Amino acid sequence: MFxxxxxxxxxxxxxxxxxxxxxxxxxxxxxxxxxxKFQGKWxxxxxxxxxxxxxxxxxxxxxxxxxxxxSSGDSTFSFTQINRFxxxxxxxxxxxxxxxxxxxFDVQDHSYLTGSFxxxxxxxxxxxxxxxxxxxxxxxxxxxxxxxxxxxKEMEEFREQLRCYQLPTPVVMDPTKxxxxxxxxxxxxxxxxxxxxxxxxxxxWNIQIL
Length: 210
What we know:
The protein is an alpha+beta fold. It has 3 helices and 9 strands. The protein has helices spanning about 1-25, 50-60, 150-165, and strands spanning about 40-50, 65-70, 75-85, 90-100, 100-105, 110-120, 125-135, 135-145, 170. Strands 1-2-3-4-5-6-7-8 form an 8-stranded antiparallel β-barrel. The longest helix has 25 residues, at about 1-25. It is found in: Secreted.
């Protein structure tokens, strides 16, 4: 009986120690950003935020595309977010500065938006953690990929990262929905929601919150 209890105790100790170690790895920002690896087109696969209104706004989007393009050197980038609402596309562009393993968005209001890239075992994915400081703090974790959908193992790893951050079940985008085309014109095709920081829709998905 003592031997059985001892084995059970050791198993419990093993689980209790392995879980924090797993989170320590999953929430670890990349030590050094290599900006050229992140350039180009990314499709949003899944996202979760600690803001209910933002989650509802995210569900209203059919697809979201993100583009990173180098502006000057390795410290300044252009970031384009393209939201599809049915047949309409909304183009939002921002300047991004990189410092060590953190990037800062110029959102030109009273908000402060920062982000970092986290660990992922997916070879053609990135996981981004964004934090928006305004009247309150909103945290978002995004899974992006060069593909339109990822495998079950890759999605489960992302869900585990969300649990580490204590974020809700993610919104998973429908891979059958079309992405909007990249557009050079700076004028949005559609402006279905206000960008004002005082409007409810400002705190939608990520930068708006995205």
